[in-house]
Design brief:
The chain is an all-alpha fold. 58% of the residues lie in helices and 0% in strands. The chain is globular and about 60 Å long.
Amino acid sequence: MFQAPSVFTRAPLPPATPESEPRREQTPKATAPASAPASAAAGKRDPYFDNVKYLAIVLVAVAHAWEPVMDGSRATRALYMIVYTFHMPAFILISGYFSRTFDMSAPKVKRLLTGVVVPYILFETAYTVFRRYAGGQTDAEISLTDPWYLTWFLAALFIWRITTPIWLTLRHPLLVALAIAMLATVSPTIGDDLDLQRVFQFLPFFVLGLLLKPEHFQLVRRREVRLLALPLFAGTLVLAYWIAPHVWLSWLYRANSAQELNVPWWSGPVITLILFGCGLVLTIGFLALVPGRRTWFTVLGAGTICGYLLHGFLIKGARYAGLFDEYPWLSNPIGLVVVSIAAAVAVTLMCTPPVRRALKFATEPEMRWAFRKDPKSPQDPKNPQNRKNPQDPENRKVLAKH
């Protein structure tokens, strides 16, 4: 590891993702009649994955809120390191898991455009305007090729998802993804366009998610794994506290090459493998501790994309307003608790159904006007399956009226 500067070179990592809605995968029972309707069960959300998304977005918001006040607190820095080691890998892995069926078909491309591309364009523009007028950065320009702060994740998710068919075709996709991630850390010429460094360095977690099956999550949620998760995080906290003053936090952001950090080139691939292993282990521990039953916060899992995209305005707004400079006591232990609770409560409110409905035009727009009608769609009258059968008694009555 390397001695760390106290200044963060890149904006923190993001959270909730507009991936396909989490559904419970069920195996049909042998005793069930073939004609039994399965649509209701198939469309039911799995509370476990909603719980994962909500708890992860809370960790993201709290970690972002720590940044302006964590200087001088070794314990907070250690907690920050732990959260940043696994919270994005966990989100990306889940995103990959729900991208397994992405095949470039028209309905899924439409969902990708409306659920990822449109929010990226709108919020990248909104954050630029916010920087310009609230932050006083009059030279801030709208650039869809240079994501700022939280929006990089949407650009990355778009790239990962459209390449899904490629990863599912390869024989050893995870090894290829790891090789790409390691090569990226020794390639300073990649540049900042679309934050491709992060796209490449976080890629192994997305590819791993593509390879997972429901039974893997059942293994993670076993009682033995949950019991091991508690000492795992306790031991990690002790280790993080010990090494906190000596760790370069920029490694956790995966946004730079080794050369850009002024360290030996070989350290990039080595750190990549170390962070992948640590991130995977802590992600397993986190997933093991998440409750699988429906809780009071389960409903909030459907709105984490709102919490993710909105909480950045709160964190940056507080900094632009000089809140942390005006109240230095926020860096004290009691202040850190206040900041953590405030961030958790704020992002929870941002994930509520009313906020989700209010932001649906930006995060889940239908945009039927922008797409051609799919002849295979059940609503399209040109679909042969939708043509009425004149022999059907009900249809005879309808045809007779015409």
